[in-house]
Amino acid sequence: MKKAFLPLLAVAALMASCGGSKAIKTEDITKHAGTAAALVEQISPNSTAADIAKLFAAMDTNGDKSVAKDEAVGKVAENFDALDTDKSAGLDLAELGGLLGMLK
Fold it and tell me: What pTM did the predictor assign?
């Protein structure tokens, strides 16, 4: 149940922050990048699944439920290849959660 809920939460957060089903504008991408950078700096070993879901939503600027290397910022960008455990060239929510393990 938890695995199914987190991706839905991430999508809902992204859609809400982008104004629903509207197309994402360039200024929205810039806003998301700034938000993602701020959120990634706040991630710590004590962060929760909800914190990771917020970060995922902020970085997934195109809404494809995957964070590509060019969408990643900060610690996520620095550790992208290690986090991308299935080598799909994109991080899903579970893979992004691996960031917490790296911080411990």
Answer: 0.67
pLDDT in tens, 14-33: 444 444 444 545 454 445 55
Question: How many C-beta atoms lie closer than 10 Å to residue 97's C-beta?
Answer: 19
67: β partners: 91
Do β-strands 90-91 and 67-68 pair in parallel, antiparallel, or remain unpaired? antiparallel
Give the Cα separation of 36 and 48 in Å (integer): 16
Q: Which amino acid is at 72?
A: A
Q: Which residues make Cβ contacts (< 8 Å) with residue 1, sequence separation at least 6?
A: none
Nearest to 58 by CA among 20, 18, 98: 18
* CATH match for 2-18+25-103 among 2.60.40, 2.20.28, 1.10.238, 1.10.10: 1.10.238
